[in-house]
Design brief:
This protein is mostly helical. It contains eight helices and no strands. Helix 2 packs antiparallel against helix 6.
Amino acid sequence: MMTESDTQQDQAADDNKMPLAPEERHAAANRMVKQYVLGSMAIGLVPIPLVDLAALVGVQLKLLHGLAGLYDIDFKADLGRSAIASLIGGIVPTTTSPSLAASLSKLIPGFGQTIATGSLVLLNGATTYALGKVFIQHFAAGGTFLTFDPEVVRDFFEQQCQEGRTVAESLRPKRRRDQATNQES
């Protein structure tokens, strides 16, 4: 249980924190995105259909919360959920439908589980990467959740999804082991 003294010490520590230079903030934001990409990829391994998608939204919401804190933006979960839904929901044919189909294919014993897991790992990583990159750009330009317009960033989001697939592929454990083995040869 926190005492009043602990609260005052925490507040004093927050008041004494030096603001990050833009380059440091950008580097910290990119590291944060990479961590959440790994977490969202792990969610692709959850064997229960639709639970994996709910968990993914939770991870992406936590990413937005972390980025908002890094950029000193007020965060409200309902605005974060709305931003995620409006951005990802706007590209339903290319992103959301495959994720939903892959999640539901986990209902097929054996083969369905294998196929779904492989595709969801990459899709989750790619969309989380793109979401992070969009909000880094938005927050760095002085935007907030209230000023977020998904239509303005839709093309950038789709471009970052493609880049995110490459990033997610490079982060897959088997892929990293294979690359390490090839470098040793």
